[in-house]
Amino acid sequence: MQILAFGASNSRNSINKALARFTATLVPNADIEVLDLNDFDLPIFSEDIEKEIGQPKAAKEFFEKIGSADGLIVSFAEHNGSYSAAYKNLFDWASRIDQKVFQGKPTIYLATSPGPGGAGSVLASAKGSAQFFGVDLKAAVSVANFYDVFDAETGRITEPNALVDLSSAAKALALQDVPVLGTQPSKPYQIMQGA
Ligand SMILES: Cc1cc2nc3c(=O)[nH]c(=O)nc-3n(C[C@H](O)[C@H](O)[C@H](O)COP(=O)(O)O)c2cc1C
Description:
The protein has seven helices and seven strands, in the order E-H-E-H-H-E-H-E-H-E-H-E-E-H. The chain is of the alpha/beta class. The strands form two sheets. Strands 2-1-3-4-5 form a five-stranded parallel sheet, sandwiched between helices. Strands 6-7 form a two-stranded antiparallel ribbon. Helix 1 (15-25) links the parallel strand 1 (2-8) and strand 2 (31-35). The structure holds flavin mononucleotide.
């Protein structure tokens, strides 16, 4: 199973990228590609610029990366309660190729922050709009107090409860339509840890 994972952030040391990468390692039998949003250089979206340049190559590349994956892991950075500007900009450009940016791919949504809120606001926002963007959402996990639960040397989440939640989400992604934790096959289950 080809898993595409990324942090929805352009921070070079993104904790969300680290969380997405680690969670991808929990997906059984996965080939993992981790994207860095810095590799998708785009102007700030405007309809005027769009009229001038059309669909930029970077937006097409992002869209095609999603299209070639079997499953997605997206971990959202929270900036002032919402998406990072870098992710929102890339997403807006990609949505002009097709509003179903996530192309029906099985997806898990994650979010983390250094504080106790665990980026729960941006995660709630992403979950609330997932249906409009072709997201087949299998699970959503917020991880609070990132630096307390992550071992930077090994790149692993060490806190047992978070680890259980992330492992369940990873398995849900791999199993796809097999019921997980008693939920119906087509219904994503949700775990909100520390949100
Ligand atoms: C402009 C800005 C706004 C932020 N707003 C929030 C916020 O609303 N909630 C929160 O939990 N953390 C907030 N933070 C802290 C981020 O959670 C923290 O920088 C985190 O490392 C971002 O994720 P990343 O490392 O994946 O980019 C903010 C950080 C910045 C730079």
